[in-house]
Amino acid sequence: MRILIAEDAPSDRMLLRFHLEKLGHQVIEVSDGEQLVSFFFSHAEEVDLLVVDLNMPHKSGVQAVNEIRAFQGSYDANWVPIIILSGSESDDDVLRCIEAGADDYLVKPIQHKVLAAKLMAMTRLDEMRQKLMAMNARLEALSTTDYLTNLPNRRAFEKNLQDEMAKAGRYGQSLCVAVFDIDHFKQVNDTYGHEGGDVVLKELSRRLVSEKRAGDQFGRIGGEEFGLCLPHTDLENALIACERYRQLLSKKPFLYDEYSIDLTVSVGLCRFTTETDQLELIKGADQALYQAKHAGRDCVVVLKKDAA
Ligand SMILES: [Mg+2]
């Protein structure tokens, strides 16, 4: 571990360094509470553990720990365990240090084996925390990603859209939303089975993502339905982009085993205005999609206001 020690007494500092290096750790030293806080705030990611003397000039160990803990949440990536060192065996000192956010309390003079044991416990704590954070990140990714296509799922797409609508409203920017629906997808599933359908959905997503304009965001919002958010885009350019995406899918067949599957999509397109809420916006794109289906499919239709 990379351990930052804050200790004002040079002899104690030397001894501590000696013990820690003997245990195989890397040591960084500062000599008062003020230095500890400023070093940690600027180098938090370089430190795995803090060992902090209770009584130091400029800023006490408790004050320093207080400031450091106020700066981070417990799930902050830069959170580190803290051990307080003190000559005092007073219960009150132990209590106020732990209350301030320290994780353990060690009485001087330092006993090598006790220090080794405490470090072992802190390492374990840190490992568990790392695992928990990795698991949380994984769960977060799972809850926002469509398992089949790896696109954002409906929830993530809508959250994204909400953010883009807020930005567009605030800065007066254009924003459009489109809904893509694969034409006669049921036939693909009926003919080639769900495995064939899945292959098509995956390849379709891959094509869209690999050819998408910077800033455009696709999401899988239903079985064979995909949402597209087009920030900074007026209706005219959104129509050009959607046409290009539509042709990208229809110009080349989809391959599954020895089969070659021709596919088209219908697309409904709708423009965001500050009076539109999210539900209306997606509904508008859905209505345009409905019109596209009725117009014979394999086309992009812009929502006609009077038809709404
Ligand atoms: Mg001291």
From TrEMBL:
GO BP, sorted A to Z: phosphorelay signal transduction system
Entry keywords, A to Z: Phosphoprotein
Name recorded for this polypeptide: diguanylate cyclase
Source species taxonomy: Bacteria, Pseudomonadati, Pseudomonadota, Gammaproteobacteria, Oceanospirillales
Chain positions found as 4-aspartylphosphate: D53
PANTHER family for this protein: DIGUANYLATE CYCLASE DGCM-RELATED, REGULATORY COMPONENTS OF SENSORY TRANSDUCTION SYSTEM
UniProt-listed Gene3D superfamilies: 3.30.70.270, 3.40.50.2300
Top-tier EC class: transferase
Source organism of this protein record: Marinomonas aquimarina
Cofactor (UniProt): Mg(2+)
A single GO molecular function term of this UniProt record: diguanylate cyclase activity
Boundaries of every Response regulatory domain copy: 2-123
Name of the encoding gene: pleD_5
Residues covered by the GGDEF domain: 173-305
InterPro entries: CheY-like_superfamily, Diguanylate_Cyclase, GGDEF_dom, Nucleotide_cyclase, Rev_trsase/Diguanyl_cyclase, Sig_transdc_resp-reg_receiver
